[in-house]
Design goal:
This protein is mainly β. The protein is globular, with a radius of gyration of 12 Å. The protein has a domain at about 10-60. Helix content is about 10%, strand content about 35%. Bound molecules: zinc ion. Zinc ion (ZN) binds near residues 18, 20, 22, 38 and 43. The site of zinc ion (ZN) has 7 residues, from loops.
């Protein structure tokens, strides 16, 4: 059983597509529930941590391992929308 490690600033790709067509969400706050914001339309939502863990398909970029990068919202490489 994998335990998903979430960090503020992580970009997550969910199994579900947001109504705006984006799957990628950025973690804003981690606690007993997790607040994420849609990378496409900027709407934020709060999910139970367990629900979110089930909904996550993969972690696109981990804030921990990419701390050298700018903490911007650029998702060009992987989630290219062009
Ligand atoms: Zn959206």
């Amino acid at each position: 059983m994998d335990i998903l490690k979430l960090h503020t600033g992580d970009i997550l790709e969910l199994k579900k597509v947001h109504p705006c067509g984006t799957r990628q969400f950025r973690v804003l706050r981690v606690g007993s529930d997790v607040r994420i914001v849609c990378c496409g339309c900027g709407r934020d939502l709060v999910l139970d941590r367990l629900k979110l863990e089930r909904a996550v398909k993969r972690v696109v970029s981990s804030a921990e391992s990419t701390s050298a990068k700018h903490p911007n919202e650029t998702i060009g490489k992987d989630g290219s929308q062009s």
